[in-house]
């Protein structure tokens, strides 16, 4: 079981960006923590980050063919709230997807309460920092395992 973890714009700035919202951890540190968690749970994690909408669209398209992934964890950053292109990319690939956020978007500004991606994902997890990604990996594993049994 291999999970593709996609981070969108400004998430490369974790560790220095709005520490009171996103914490002190850098993206590299967070990814290392997620990779270790996945390994302990018998999963492989592969990571992709881009500040560009089209590159995120392409990474989603190539989840299986380039990354060999069985599921996608997607933190599209601010694109979550308005990118129809990323929303349309999600049903292009037949792997389960979980939308995640580090912060609790529902406790923040109103524009962050809307996700144009959520309806094209199996579920959404937000507000748990790096644990949002770990919980998403467990959710994907459950979906893939259940599908395998069906
Ligand atoms: C975020 C929340 C978004 O509203 C914001 O634009 C981000 C990060 C999060 O992980 O909490 O860039 O997706």
What does this protein look like?
This protein is an alpha/beta fold. It is built from five helices and five strands. Strand 3 (71-75), helix 4 (84-89) and strand 4 form a beta-alpha-beta unit. Helix 2 (27-40) packs parallel to helix 5. The longest helix is centred in the last third of the chain and has 20 residues, at 130-149. It is globular. Bound molecules: 1,3,4-trihydroxy-5-OXO-cyclohexanecarboxylic acid (DQA). The site of 1,3,4-trihydroxy-5-OXO-cyclohexanecarboxylic acid has 10 residues, from loops. 1,3,4-trihydroxy-5-OXO-cyclohexanecarboxylic acid (DQA) binds next to loops.
Structure described in brief:
The protein has 150 residues and is α/β, with parallel strands linked by helices. Helix content is 35%, strand content 17%.
Chain-wise SSE layout:
Layout: E1 2-7, H1 19-22, H2 27-40, E2 44-49, H3 53-61, E3 71-75, H4 84-89, E4 97-101, E5 123-126, H5 130-149
Parallel strand pairs: 1-2, 1-3, 3-4, 4-5
Helix pairs in contact: 2-5
The protein binds 1,3,4-trihydroxy-5-OXO-cyclohexanecarboxylic acid.
List keywords for this structure.
150 residues, DHquinase_II_CS, single chain, 17% strand, binds 1,3,4-trihydroxy-5-OXO-cyclohexanecarboxylic acid, 5 strands, amino-acid biosynthesis, aromatic amino acid biosynthesis, 5 helices, alpha/beta, globular, five-stranded parallel beta sheet
